[in-house]
Each structure stands twice: as C-alpha cells, then as structure tokens.
Amino acid sequence: MGHIDSGKTTFLDKIKGTCITGQEAGRITQHIGATEITQDVIKLMCNHLLIKFNFVITIPGLLFIDTPGHNAFDNLRERGGSLADLVVLVVDINKGLQAQDIETLNILKMYKVPFIVVANKVDLIQGWYQEGADISGVLNKQSKSVSDRLDEKIYKIVGQLYNQGFTAERYDRVTDFQKQITIIPISAEKCWGLSEAIVFLSTLSQKFLGSRLTLDETNHAQATILECGEIKGVGSTADIIVYQGVLKVKDRIAFLSKSGLIETKVKALLKIDVMSAVNKKRDYKQVDFVSAACGVKIVAPELESCIPGSIIVSCDDIEAIEHLKSKPLSCILSNGEAEGAFVKADTLGSLEALLKLMGKSSICVARSDIGEVTNKDLLELKIIFQRDKKKGALFLFNTQISKELEEEANKFGIPIFKNNIIYKLIEDYQAYLDKLNKVEKEKLLKEVTYPCKVKVLKNCIFRVSKPAIVGVKVLVGKLVPGVTLISSNGDEVGIVEGIQTDGNKLSTLEYDKEAAISIKGATYLKDFFEESVFTVNLSFDSIKKLEEIGYQFTREEEGLIADAMKKRYQTKE
Question: How many whole angstroms separate alpha carbon 226 and alpha carbon 239?
C-alpha cells in the first residue's frame, strides 16, 4: 500500500522480474491479484543476507496481494479471517509520508495490522553513487554527505511515524523488531533493497505471526472476493484470494449478496499462465483445485451478485454458513440512523473502514452501499437534506455519480464529498459543517439581544426627538440595533433604530466604544438627560440562545442578567 506514484507497482513488478529471471517458470507462481514467491526462490535471492543476519526461512513462501485496498487486510474481520498477515507500506523517501500513507496508517492502527515501510527512490537522492547489488552493499559505498542526506530523509519519516503513534528505525539499526517499525531504504527501479524487503517480511512473519501462519488443508475453503466480472462465453467470474483450505472444481460455495445468502457450484478455476503473465498477457489455464494462500479466478453461476470485499465459504462449513446468516450484509448495506448521510464505496472492506472512521467522528449515516449513486438514493437524500442540511450529505469513496445526478444534487445544494482517502472525506465534511455553523451563528447573533449598559455623553445631544439622536458610550457588553433601552428606574426609553460613527452604519457597538445612536420613541429632557445610563431590555430567549452558541459572558454582563431577572421576578410578584 501507499500514496500514488510512490512506486508500489514498480516494487511488485521488479520482484516478479527478479524472481523469474534465470529461474524455471515454475519457481514463481502468478495468481489472480497476487504474486507468490516460494521458499526456494527466497533462498536463492537472499541467501547472502540470510547468512549475514543469521536468519532461517521456515515459511513456504510469500503471497503479495497485487490489488491494494482496505479489504485486502481488513477482510470483514467479523465474518472471516484477516486476509493479509502483513502490509508493505511503500513511501517515496524524497517526499516522506503523504496523504494516502497517513490514510493507510490510520486503517492499520484501527485493525492492528503489522507492517514494514520500504522507503523507495533512494537513487534520486542528490549525489547518490549508483552501483551495487542489494541495499546493504549500496549504502556502504555512499559518501558521508549522501549518507547524512539519507539519514535526514529516513528520520523525517521516523518523526512522521512517531506523530502517528509508531516507533520506527532503519532496518539495520532496529533493536526490537516487536516494538519498532522496520524502515528499509530501497530503489525499486534499480532493484536495490528488494532482497532485504523479502528477507525481513519472511523473518518477521515467522517470528511474530505465530499460529496465524499455520494452515490445515483439511479446513473448509474460505476466500475473499477482490473483484466481480464476466468472461464472454464463460460466464460470471470473481477474482478471489483463497486464505484457508482447498477449493476444488464442483465444490458448492456460498456468499452474501444484497438480497441474502446465495449458494452455487464452482464450474471452473482459472489461473494465470506464468510466462504469458510475465509478458503482460492475460492467458488463463484451468486447474482442478487451489489451496491457500493463492489468488484464482472462479467461474460459477450467480457470481454477478457477489460484492467485492465480502467472503466466499464452503457449503460444507455449517458454522461459517450460520455465521454468514447471522451477520447479513444488511447490517452494513442498509439504513442506519433515521436521518444522516448516504455513503457509497467500491468494496465492502472499504465501506466498513469508512463507516468505522465516520462512527469515531460521530457522523450519522442513514444509508450505506456498494457501487454508484442511484436516482433513488438522491430522491431519499433530498428529503433528509431539506430537513437537516448538516446530515443530508453524500460520501463517495472510490465510486462514481453520473453527471446528470451530480447536477441534480448541485441544484438542490446537496453537498457531495468525493475522495479516495477516507480521512480527507471526513476533513472536507468537517470543514463544510464549520462553514454551516459559522453562517448559523452569524445569523443567530443578528437576532439576539446582548446584555448591555450605555451612557449618554455630555454635549452630544444631536436631535431631541422623532427620533432622538445622541452620542453614547458602551459601559458593559455590546449594543446592537433593534433593542429596547430601559432607564435606571425601570421605564422603557425607546428602541435603538441605528448606530453610526463617522457617517458609517454599525451593526454592533462594542464595549468601551462611542457612537451616535437614534432612539425611536424617546424625547430629550422628558425620557432622558445628558449622562443618563440605560440598560438593554433582556429576554430569556436571547440569553438562552447566547448560551447555546457558547457566548462567554463577562462578570459585568452576568451582573446585568441577574439584575434583569430579579426585576422581572419582582414585577411578576
């Protein structure tokens, strides 16, 4: 996994090419969505490193999942085993952790998936001496200035990982592999560091994953669906990763669809022809069975109803079938809150990851589903949006909305959040909420009455009545137009029609400021005099609204409120 253009594809392609070059075709197995490297290939590639680090390889091999995505390592943990045992986070060493890297770290942290970091593109570091086989040999040939630049870039990544809650170190300086994340500097383009990556993945797997790596082939088959499709003349297909047991042609299998549990029979199992895969072709050969862990294209009736990210189980596995029935997709692909956002994603794993993070951010979800936005989605969302603009939002993760429906949503003002980074979706939504709240607060503030006390200034009577225009100074709080002024003996003086200073109208006159105000219904020498002091007539509603929006009252303002409430209570008595 990793940010776009970090070198994920090059990393895998070079591993495939390195393993195949000079080897018999059968020593590396190409899978649907995955690449298997067997133990003998690992030993051939990495023997000198195994000797150097005193490592012994006991695992039968590594299966690299070529298809990135949240479901690759989450795999709906509640309904099946975790698909990936380890994650390789590919980072551009010259850029450090980027948006999708942070996204991956958040998901890895949430699901507690172990990982290593390969810091790619070291060959682009200024002054790099480009000669050598593995990265261990190349590092020793660099000048001190280049080595310092390399360390500077690596420790920038170490710092970024620390900020995300991880302790990390360069692979040859790690003191505790269980507590520290291993960072391996590589150049996928030059094939430097591939051997180290494979060695450390192998040894870390067998050292820390323990019983998770033990496979009993008598177990019933279970697999994760990566992608659904169709081959003309063959029928409905699904690209799957078998992570438990043995799957055979004619086996009866079951999977969940939106409409419920579907049972069907395996018609064919298709694997990629090794040499044609190397030559970038997609030629398949039929096999009678596959055993975990491997990728395969499965052909069976009704597979068009399957959902990427969900699991396939053997019909003989009664416990797994009952588990699927008890945890239907309707738990996820259904109505949530009565009113909330609509969420669409490309796979079930992605959807689950998104919903978990939205839940942590207290975002209400009314509907969640796989695939593109439908007209029905938009019709229902319109109703929610009309009731509550904060809840009626549309979230799209790696999926689409047609131009027509997007224009329709825009016409009604429905906010659409599209991104292939989950936390960016949530950040954009929070920014949208902040904007709405600011507008609401500004509107509310225009409608409320603040606690306020003003004093009429001496020699500042500009008009005696209809309306009276006088100069005032704010002694407590703030003054806004539209409020009723009360004299010191509790009589109504008049209504403030406007506030003006230097010919400019003001919406608010702040504490300790002076300005001219017009008072409707007030007459000088009858209702007030120079240096008269007025307070603003306060209502319970205004005080309540100010409290709701978090307005911080000063001690003097609290005193005005207390006096106003006391007078009101005495009046009622």
Answer: 5
Of 316, 181, 183, 194, the C-alpha closest to 246 is 316
CATH superfamily of 222-329: Translation factors (2.40.30.10)
Reduced to 3 states, what is the DSSP secondary structure of residue 456?
strand
What residues have CB less than 8 Å from 465, skipping those under 6 apart? 522, 523, 524
Q: Rounded to two decimals, what is the model's pTM?
A: 0.66
What one-letter code names the amino acid at 332?
Answer: I
Q: Among 277, 217, 238, 340, which residue's Cα sits nearest to residue 13?
A: 277
Would you say residue 153 has pLDDT above 70? Answer: yes
Q: What is the CATH number of domain 332-444?
A: 3.40.50.10050
Q: Where are the domains of the chain?
A: 8-211, 222-329, 332-444, 452-572
Residue at 445: amino acid letter = L
Q: Which secondary-structure segment (H or E) carries 311?
A: strand 311-314
- Residue 341 scores a pLDDT above 80: yes
CA–CA dist 524, 278 (Å, integer): 96
Mean pLDDT rounded to a whole number for the chain: 84
SS3 category, 92 = strand
Give, in words, the CATH class of 452-572.
mainly beta
CA distances to 138, 236, 277 from 190, rounded to whole Å, are: 11, 40, 22
Mean pLDDT, to the nearest integer, of 27-34? 60
Q: What is the pLDDT of residues 83-97, one digit of tens each?
A: 677 889 999 999 999
pLDDT > 70: percent of the chain: 87
* Tokens (6 digits) for 289: 């069975």
CB atoms within 10 A of CB 88: 20
- What length is written for the chain? 573
pLDDT of residue 38 exceeding 90: no
Across the range 463-475, mean pLDDT stands at 95
* Domain with residues 8-211, CATH architecture: 3-Layer(aba) Sandwich (3.40)
Assess contact for 145 and 181: CB atoms under 8 A. Answer: no
- Sign of the torsion formed by the C-alpha atoms of 316, 317, 318 and 323: negative
